[in-house]
Amino acid sequence: MRDADTSAGTAVDDAIARAAELVAGSSYLIAFTGAGVSAESGIPTFRGQGGIWGSYDESHLELGFFRREPAIAWKTIKQIFYTFTLSVEPNDAHRVLARWEAAGRLRLVVTQNIDGLHRRAGSRNVAEFHGSCDELVCMRCGGRVPAAAGLLDSLPPRCECGGLLKPGFVFFGEGIPADAYETAFSAAAMADACLVIGSTGTVYPAASIPRAVKRAGGRVVEINPEPSEFTDEVSDVLIRLPAAEAMRRLEAAVDAI
Ligand code: APR
Question: Is the pLDDT reported for residue 5 higher than 80?
């Protein structure tokens, strides 16, 4: 009788071996990432233990609230998104995906994350489904300005035209950027494999993307220390490890095929 550690370790080894076969055998691989891929870079996830929504009011990220109470909303937004995102680095999970893109193995990263870490790791084909923190957008003239630290010294930040500046990422109740939406769903329709890393799979329409791959006959490899909404419904393999370790081991397993 194998002890629990051994059987868990064997299950992970088996999952990595099966995942490596799927990745190595794919002709159109995409990745779909959530907050968990950036957890080892020091950015807290939204849900689960220590999640952001356990400490902050999600309603402050609703467009209606932001229009009514911009000063209160901006105080929350600055604390959540502009305190740590300006000082964190990509981790090995981001870096392996960037290497796979450079080697022609990975076609696209669709990310729900707004931290810009996939681009900072070197990925060029990135669909930022929820936008990014990089710029602020004027709600009056539509002008875009870089989210430089000084700009947030007084809240709410104002455009030169006097209009209210909003973060360049998608609020609850706001539409998905059209180019990211189109890029993501057309790639999902062509993908024969999708790597899902670090997402609860609870927020739509983003969570439809791995489902679209599965519906079109593609295979889904999931990396997450915990099961998600994807696990029973769409994942062919679940590697129950943190993203950085999982991607290091998966890269080695793929290289060995
Ligand atoms: N490696 C991989 N996965 C991890 C790690 C890790 N080190 N740590 C946590 N996770 C997993 C958790 O188990 C969870 O399934 O990452 C997932 C994080 O889930 P959420 O916090 O719900 O993040 P996400 O799915 O990206 O949220 C989607 O919700 O609030 C909105 O717009 C926001 O883009 C976000 C969307």
Answer: no
